[in-house]
Amino acid sequence: MSILLFVLLSLIRCTKNDDLIPITPDTSMYFPANTGSDWETTSATQLGWNTTAIEDLKTFLAQKNTKSFMILVNGRIVMEEYFNGHTASTDWEWNSAGKTLVSVTTGIAQQENLLNINNRVSDYLESGWTNMPLEKENMITVRNLLTMTSGISSESQLVIHNNLTYVADAGTRWAYSNVFQLLIDVDAKASNSDFETYFNEKLKNKIGMEGFWNFGVIFKIYHSNTRSMARFGLLALSKGRWKDEQIVNENYFNESTNTSQNTNPSYGYLWWLNGKSKYMVPGSQDVFQGALIPNAPSDMFAALGASDQKLYIIPSKKMVIVRMGDSADPNNPAFATSGFDNALWAKINAVIN
Fold first, then answer.
1. Residues 12, 13, 14, 19, CA torsion sign
2. How would residue 109 be classed by pLDDT, with cut points 50, 70 and 90?
3. Which of 109, 203, 220, 225 has the CA that lies 20 to 30 A from 188?
4. What residues have CB less than 8 Å from 59, skipping those under 6 apart?
5. Mean per-residue pLDDT for 19-40?
6. What's the pLDDT tens digit per position in 324-348?
7. d(Cα 310, Cα 289) in Å, to the nearest integer?
8. What is the structure's pLDDT at 4?
9. Contact 269, 147 (CB under 8 A)
10. For residue range 227-263, what is the model confidence (pLDDT) as tens digits?
11. Average pLDDT, rounded, for the chain
12. For residues 231 and 165, what is the distance between their CA atoms, to the nearest angstrom?
């Protein structure tokens, strides 16, 4: 009997060592520690992906001026690639993808009862903060800044008093512009704190992000390494939760990532939304029919920045995707969404579907 038992145990060991038993990927949600570089991984093979298409995806990314690319599934790294001298520790600008950081920070301020997004902006900034008739200025709420529906002129990217002129009543016109930057002032006034100090305490440090804000004269841009953007994406995938802490109220986060107004249903609270019936783009009042990124999953929402900074969140696939780099098409740069989105998703689909 002892010899038979020995043989059986040896067979079991051989089976395990030869990987004859399929490995089931861990579907629990994973969050990396807030310090250190340890981060759990899973493989494309474990997920049943088409591994033969990965090299084509990587070649495409390199050809399109990509600096870094990451895919997380259930919080675990499946792909992490760096190109053209970029490394895991290199900081890069988020550009307008960083608007979503302001959106979440504003939600945190609201849950702390420091502000209410349905209140007038004038409740937090001194009256006369625009160059508009007072009755028009008083129509503008914090929510209008979050949804790009302030009615303020979008002709100039320089947000100064003289440029904050009237175009339409608040809530009646969607126009992508730098006016959202006033949310930074609102959050600072409401929290009685420097914005970056409040942001660091309430968001950045809570999820182990690295990075810094560059408050330029025209643009207010966040810079970080790729993994820090992925951390924020994981927070978004979990609807504002990090491990056991709800960083930002889930109801607010759900509002943020759903249609915020009727003019451009593909826009939430500074988040872009896929799978809607129509969309608008920066610098235009034209309305285009169909989904924002047809090749991408319909439930995807995204933080999109100039020169093709991409943070895609796909709840149905428990997936976060990060792309940082220079513009994929330097001859036709775009502020947020671009043709690169659809082309990139064609390559991604060849791998994951």
1. positive
2. very high
3. 225
4. none
5. 83
6. 999 999 988 778 888 999 999 999 9
7. 22
8. 46
9. yes
10. 999 999 999 999 999 999 999 999 999 999 999 999 9
11. 93
12. 38
Residue at 43: amino acid letter: S
Q: What percent of the chain has pLDDT over 70?
A: 93
**What is the sign, positive or negative, of the torsion defined by CA atoms of 211, 212, 216, 218?**
positive
CB 203 within 8 A of CB 240: no
pLDDT band, very low/low/confident/very high, at 2 (cuts 50, 70, 90): very low
**What is the rounded CA–CA span in Å between residue 306 and residue 332?**
11
Token pair recorded at residue 35:
């310090």
Cα separations (Å) of 273 from 21, 163, 201, 276, 353?
Answer: 40, 29, 28, 7, 21
- With H, G, I as helix, E, B as strand and everything else as coil, classify residue 323: strand
Q: Which of 126, 351, 320 is nearest to 226 (CA)?
A: 320
Q: Measured in whole angstroms, how far is the alpha carbon of residue 320 from the centre of its chain?
A: 9
The average pLDDT across 70-96 equals 97
For 132-158, letters b (16+ CB in 10 Å) and e give beeebbbbbbbbbbbbbbbbbbbeeee
Which residues touch 76 (CB under 8 Å, ≥6 apart)? Answer: 26, 30, 39, 40, 41, 42
Q: Give the H/E segment covering residue 272.
A: strand 272-273
Taking residue 270's Cβ as centre, other Cβ atoms within 10 Å add up to 24
| Structural contact between residues 341 and 294, judged by C-beta atoms closer than 8 angstroms | no
Classify 16 as helix, strand or coil: helix
Are 314 and 71 in contact by the 8 Å Cβ rule? The answer is: no
State the Cα–Cα distance between residues 14 and 3, nearest whole angstrom. Answer: 17
Spatial distance between the Cα atoms of 278 and 262, rounded to a whole number of angstroms: 10
Average pLDDT over residues 13-17: 42
What is the pLDDT confidence band of residue 15, given thresholds at 50, 70 and 90?
Answer: very low
pLDDT at 16 over 70: no
Nearest Cα to Cα of residue 150 among 178, 124, 125: 178
For the chain, first and last CA: distance in Å? 49
Q: Which amino acid is at 210?
A: E
